[in-house]
Amino acid sequence: MYKYTKNILVFCLMLFLPTVFVFAYVPERIVQESLLDITNVKNPEEEHFFYGDLDSFPNTFQITSEESFNLYVEIRVPDIEGVVKNISGIIIKEKNTGGVEEVSRLSASDATWDPIYEYFDGNSYLLGPSFESRVQAGVYRIEVNTPDNLEKYVLVIGRADSTEKIGFFEKISRIADTKVFFGKSQVMIIESPLVYKSLIVLIFTLIIIFVIVRKLKRRAL
Fold first, then answer.
1. Longest dimension (CA), the chain
2. Closest CA to 16 of 190, 193, 176
3. Average pLDDT, whole number, for the chain?
4. Segments of the chain assigned E as strands
5. Burial status of residue 199 (CB atoms within 10 A of its CB: 0-12, 13-18, 19 or more)
6. From CA 168, how far away is CA 170, in angstroms rounded?
7. Cβ(205)–Cβ(9) below 8 Å
8. Which residues pair with 4 in a beta bridge?
9. Please, what's the b/e burial string for 153-165 (b: 16 or more CB within 10 A of its CB; e: otherwise)?
10. pLDDT for res 197
11. How far apart are alpha carbons 118 and 127 in whole angstroms?
């Protein structure tokens, strides 16, 4: 009986789990404690979601690449009550001869701030300014700011699906962090398909096992 139950469990997991755990990106909560702090971004063509709070100074992100790459940068804000849509940014590149040069400015006033819902984390956002271009190898910095540097922001870098390998519970933890960022309870991770699909798979599997075990017990009588 144990053999049959084990086979059923493995079959259900193989059938459903591939649809549960395939996701495009992994969210990351960012805390920069001073103006000197810099968040380094690896694999800049892969999609990154950085969630941060400006605390009286701009936040800075750095990309170092030894070859040309497609640079995509997008600023968002959480679609929540009282949010201020004034997040801007600037992209600069280090010169080989010293100093920096401006690549692009991302102005809050140029954005339409259209709403968008992200299926992965179950959160709603407002789309701000963005930039996309093929750029040469080098060191790039992205600065996120507002007039008073006291707002929430979400910085999206890259478009390709993420190849970052993290465990299931780490993913759940990061999604819970986004819920807190949005002013929600961590219990609201249930809005994410990573959670509710997993629960559906678990419940469905347990029901099948229960039914099969009952039938096997009856046959044994």
1. 86
2. 193
3. 84
4. 26-30, 38-40, 48-53, 59-65, 69-78, 88-94, 100-106, 115-118, 123-135, 138-145, 152-157
5. exposed
6. 5
7. yes
8. none
9. bbbbbbeeebeee
10. 65
11. 11
Over the stretch 127-169, which tens digit does the pLDDT of each residue have?
999 999 999 999 999 999 999 999 999 999 999 877 676 677 7
- Give the angle subtended at the CA of 158 by the CAs of 157 and 163, to the nearest 5°: 115
User: What does the radius of gyration of the chain's CA atoms come to, in whole angstroms?
Assistant: 22
What percent helix, strand, coil does the chain show, rounded to 5?
30, 35, 35
Pick the CATH number of 24-161 from 3.90.45.10, 3.40.50.720, 3.30.565.10, 2.60.120.380: 2.60.120.380
Model pTM? 0.78
Give the strand order in the sheet containing 138-145: 38-40, 59-65, 138-145, 88-94, 100-106
- pLDDT value, residue 183: 86
Tokens at 123, concatenated? 């959160």
Domain ranges for the chain, please list them: 1-23+165-221, 24-161
Across the beta sheet with 123-135, what order do the strands follow? 26-30, 48-53, 152-157, 69-78, 123-135, 115-118
Per the CB < 8 A criterion, the answer to whether 120 and 21 are in contact is: no
